[in-house]
Amino acid sequence: MELGDFVRGERKRQGLTQQQLANKSGVGLNFVYQLEKNKPSVQLDSLNLVLRALGYSVSVKRDFRPWDEPVQTPLETEGEIEPKRAAATAKRKNSEREWGAL
């Protein structure tokens, strides 16, 4: 589900029109329209205002997967990926011992 689809669904669930959501969040009607159409030129500060008006917030989470750890593909089974993950973890720990954790 794309963000615009989420906003549209939540707006409708709360019984708001696009104009009401725009007024409630302090952004223009065109912004709400573009957001719900999943247009790529959405400004983050305006997006945050819309999400707050709907009772949500934006948070950023750090991806704790080491950059050199292989990503499991649908074709890989659990048994095949675990040895790779263990090797990547060991490599990361060795690197931390040599260079210190950043």
How would you concisely characterize the structure shown here?
The protein is mainly alpha-helical and 102 residues long.
Give an overview in words:
This protein is mostly helical. It has two domains: 3-53, 434 Repressor (Amino-terminal Domain), CATH 1.10.260.40; 62-102, no CATH class. It is 58% helix and 0% strand. It has five helices and no strands. It has helices spanning 3-13, 18-25, 29-36, 44-53, 78-99. Helix 2 packs across helix 3 (29-36) and helix 2 (18-25) crosses helix 4. The chain is elongated, with a radius of gyration of 21 Å. The mean pLDDT is 74.
List the helices and strands and how they pair.
Layout (H helix, E strand, L loop, with lengths): L2 H11 L4 H8 L3 H8 L7 H10 L24 H22 L3
